[in-house]
Design goal:
The protein is mostly beta strands. The chain has a five-stranded mixed β-sheet, with no helix packed on it. It has a four-stranded mixed β-sheet with strand order 6-1-11-13.
């Protein structure tokens, strides 16, 4: 199965989250590889109109596994990592959003397993105008079976 993540409403190319003295510039977002926080799939600009990633996974008895799937059975998730990119191309993570696969309704996961694609759609800017972070609540993300 494939998981396609589509992000809209990005925060822009710089931000200064509350409580931080530093402003983060040239921000990008990408899907973090399992157990490799510095390895991101296709980092995309924080000022893009829309961003998207597709990751391969397997589903066995409703347990989703793959190179970009984090966590233990029953607690699986995907990290979207926010990074700055310096002039030399070095990525420095400053926050992450956690897309909980356990929040995917069972009937949606079953339909996606059949169709071959599970799609997540979400806005990537929080209520304060900064990059979305922490656990993404079910009301903020739409999971659907796609083709």
């Amino acid at each position: 199965m494939l998981i396609r993540i589509v992000g809209t409403q990005l925060p822009g190319s710089s931000c200064r989250p509350a409580g931080n003295e530093a402003t983060y510039s040239n921000i990008h977002v990408g899907v973090q590889r399992k157990n490799r926080p510095q390895e991101l799939l296709d980092p995309q600009r924080g000022d893009a109109d829309t961003v998207a990633w597709t990751v391969e996974c397997t589903v066995v008895d409703a347990d989703i596994r793959g190179a970009y799937i984090q966590g233990r059975p029953g607690e699986r998730f995907v990290y979207l990592s926010w990074v700055t990119v310096d002039d030399g191309g070095t990525l420095t993570m400053f926050r992450r959003a956690k897309l909980m696969l356990a929040d995917v309704p069972a009937e949606t996961l079953a339909a996606a397993t059949e169709s071959g694609v599970l799609e997540a759609r979400l806005g990537l800017t929080d209520a304060t105008g900064n990059p979305l972070c922490a656990r993404v609540k079910p009301a903020m993300i739409s999971w659907t079976a796609a083709t």
